[in-house]
Specification:
With 294 residues, this protein is of the alpha/beta class. 34% of the residues lie in helices and 18% in strands. The protein folds into two domains: 85 residues, Helicase, Ruva Protein, domain 3; 191 residues, Vaccinia Virus protein VP39 (Rossmann fold, 3-Layer(aba) Sandwich), CATH 3.40.50.150.
C-alpha cells in the first residue's frame, strides 16, 4: 500500500474501514463502528465539515493530504490510540472539548441529562446557585452545567493537576472563568465550606476484574481516572458519605457508575437509589436527595 494507490476520499474511506475492521479495534470513545470512525478521522485530517461527506467523496486529493490521512489511519490501527487523542478533540452533544492523554476521553451519561436540567428533580433551574462536579477530568460537565443553570457558580474538582490543566483550557475556551472554579483536591478535602444545590460526579468506577480486561484503547487513558478498586465503589462510597454535609436542603447528588449497578446497590443497602434513564438504560446513573442522605 502506497499513497499512489489512492486518489479520492472514497478510496481512503473504504480502505480505513477495512483496515479498522481487520484490526478489531474497540470503538468506545465517540464512534460505535469502523465506518463512522474512519469518516470522522478523515474529515478532520482533511479539514472538511463533519456533516458534508457526500460532496467530497470523489474529489481528488493532494499527495500530502493522502500522506496525512494514511498516517492517521495507521496510528489508529497499529497503536490503538483513541481517535480523540489523535485529533485532540472530543464531542459531547454539540459541545467540543480539547483532550489529550492527561485526561480520559469525555464520555458521560450525565451529559445526556444536563440539557433537561435534571427534571423533575430540580424544580427551578434558576434557583440553582451552586453546583459541584467531583472528578471533573477535562472539565466538560461543568461547562455544560453553566449553560443549564445560568445563575450557578460551579466548583470543579480533580486530584490530578494534569487533568486540571486540560480543564482550564476548556473553561477558558468557553469564556467561563468567572463561573467555574477549578480546584485540585481529593474529593471534598480542599473545598470551601459551602452548600451545593447539585453535586454530580462521573468518578473512577471500573472494578478490579474489569480493569484487567479493558481493550487496548483504554490503556492510553490515565488509569487513575478509571480504576475504582475491588468492586469499583472506592470513590463512590466517599462521594456519597461526604454529600450529606455538602448538599443544600433540597439538593441532589447524581453519580455515574456505568455497568456497576449491582456493586452500587450492594455498597448502599440502606439507601433507595433512584436510577435515571439514559441512552444505555436505567442503571448507569443514580440519584440521591439531601433528605435521603440526612
Amino acid at each position: 500500500m502506497t499513497p499512489n494507490d489512492f486518489t479520492t476520499l472514497r478510496d481512503l474511506l473504504r480502505y480505513a474501514t477495512s483496515r479498522f475492521n481487520r484490526a478489531h479495534l474497540f470503538f468506545g470513545h465517540g464512534s460505535s463502528n469502523a465506518f463512522d470512525e474512519a469518516a470522522y478521522l478523515l474529515l478532520h485530517t482533511l479539514g472538511l465539515p463533519f456533516d458534508k461527506l457526500e460532496p467530497f467523496l470523489d474529489a481528488k486529493l493532494l499527495t500530502e493530504e493522502i500522506d496525512a490521512a494514511l498516517r492517521m489511519i495507521e496510528r489508529r490501527a497499529d497503536e490503538r490510540i483513541p481517535a480523540a487523542y489523535l485529533t485532540n478533540e472530543a464531542w459531547l452533544g454539540d459541545y467540543r472539548f480539547f483532550v489529550d492523554e492527561r485526561v480520559i476521553v469525555p464520555r458521560s451519561f450525565i451529559a445526556e441529562l444536563i440539557p433537561d436540567r435534571f427534571s423533575p428533580w430540580i424544580a427551578d433551574p434558576f434557583q440553582v446557585n451552586a453546583a459541584l462536579d467531583l472528578c471533573t477530568g477535562s472539565g466538560c460537565l461543568p461547562v455544560m452545567l453553566a449553560d443549564a443553570f445560568p445563575n450557578a457558580h460551579i466548583d470543579a474538582v480533580d486530584i490530578s493537576a494534569d487533568a486540571l490543566a486540560v480543564a482550564t483550557r476548556n473553561v477558558n475556551d468557553y469564556g467561563l472563568q468567572e463561573r467555574i472554579s477549578l480546584i485540585e483536591s481529593d474529593l471534598y478535602t480542599k473545598l470551601p465550606k459551602k452548600k451545593y444545590d447539585v453535586i454530580i460526579s462521573n468518578p473512577p468506577y471500573v472494578n478490579a476484574g474489569s480493569m484487567g480486561r479493558l481493550p487496548k484503547e483504554y490503556l492510553h487513558e490515565p488509569q487513575i481516572a478509571l480504576a475504582g478498586g475491588h468492586d469499583g465503589m472506592d470513590l463512590v462510597r466517599k462521594i456519597v458519605e461526604g454529600a450529606a454535609d455538602r448538599l443544600s436542603e433540597n439538593g441532589v447528588l447524581i453519580v455515574e457508575i456505568g455497568n456497576e449497578r449491582e456493586h452500587a446497590e450492594a455498597a448502599f443497602p440502606d439507601l433507595e437509589l433512584t436510577w435515571l434513564s439514559t441512552s444505555a438504560g436505567d442503571d448507569m446513573v443514580f440519584l440521591l436527595t439531601a433528605e435521603q442522605l440526612q
